């Protein structure tokens, strides 16, 4: 069974709003107590939160469907329904949230406690007490709760570490991180022993930093060969790249210099990593032949301006200078990093004169109305209640929909679709149905609705 998952698709559904209540106050000696229906509760939100104790997306791989609580319906005696419970989903630090269909990056979650509302709960419907007014003193209807938002999201984990150890499979990266820190990755004498990034915390003097043991890279990794894309993604956030080169390899056509050039070519082809400082670690110098090879190739790397360290993860030779050199580069990167600024809230007001809807003709005396308000009002309307339908007609008339339909050339009896062409609400438009009813009937009825 897999224990580490760094890419998963999740389906989230916010809670639906509770329906409003249509209720009339009843009390002895008060035959006309008036409306007292409460409002429905708002649906719960689905929220991603960076959690320090979460290191993998495995739980979402096993249970990809998540749903927040629904709002409770309103009740009589002016009692509002309870709000639906929010669903807070913990994710590792460095999780990127994308739209699963378009690939658009929605948010990059970095920093413990950072939150992102992935789906907002639906608003609760108003009860008849909130709908009462001079024209409708005792409404016989209430508004329905709105459905919560739904989303299909792609979660990608990019490891947050200061230093990335890169190199060919079986170069000794896992042994090195185990010797530098308290991390205990799986270590064995075969390629691709490490299939997931391992993180270790290293202390060098007063400096404390994290090191990521990135799974081995091979030629073609930048094109995805050998799960290259999955591995390279974890290097993006690191401020320093350390090449771990195997000086004791017995494979033909391989040596530290060629290994370095192959890995550098893959990093360059992947992109976004050119500005990271580099360091070279010549590993396994506890083997006599490897020590000789390390002394031979050291000048070649120093000529390129690279700092070189000959180490042995087994005998721990050279580890202390290496740790302090890593700490120095990490501190330099931290000092040059611009100070973090709080995320600014962007407010985009609607243009003046924007009616909030559009009307377009799609056929002979057939029109489509789209817009946030009309479509929202459709979802709130109980079409089994004639008075609620009449209230909807009044709202559309006040918004200017009737006037816009007349200007667009609509004739009485026109077929009007509010919302999308598939799944929208269809009705026959008659201008005489707008405006308050001429004769008030029993609650729940409207004389304009046949």
TrEMBL record:
User: What InterPro entries does the record tag this protein with?
Assistant: G_OBG, GTP-bd, GTP-bd_Obg/CgtA, GTP-bd_prot_GTP1/OBG_C_sf, GTP1-OBG_CS, GTP1_OBG_dom, GTP1_OBG_dom_sf, OBG_GTPase
Q: Where in the cell is it found?
A: Cytoplasm
**Principal subcellular localisation of the protein:** cytoplasm
Instruction: Please list where the region (Disordered) is annotated.
Output: 64-84, 430-450
User: What positions does the entry give for GTP binding?
Assistant: 167-174, 192-196, 213-216, 283-286, 312-314
Which segments constitute the OCT domain?
349-431
Please give the Gene Ontology molecular function terms for this protein.
GTP binding; GTPase activity; magnesium ion binding
Q: Give the SUPFAM superfamilies listed for this entry.
A: Obg GTP-binding protein C-terminal domain, Obg GTP-binding protein N-terminal domain, P-loop containing nucleoside triphosphate hydrolases
Which Pfam families does the UniProt entry name for this protein? DUF1967, GTP1_OBG, MMR_HSR1
What does the subunit comment say?
Monomer.
Which family is annotated? Belongs to the TRAFAC class OBG-HflX-like GTPase superfamily. OBG GTPase family.
Per the entry, what this protein does is:
An essential GTPase which binds GTP, GDP and possibly (p)ppGpp with moderate affinity, with high nucleotide exchange rates and a fairly low GTP hydrolysis rate. Plays a role in control of the cell cycle, stress response, ribosome biogenesis and in those bacteria that undergo differentiation, in morphogenesis control.
Q: What is this protein called?
A: GTPase Obg
Organism, by scientific name, is Thermobispora bispora (strain ATCC 19993 / DSM 43833 / CBS 139.67 / JCM 10125 / KCTC 9307 / NBRC 14880 / R51)
Tell me what gene encodes this.
obg
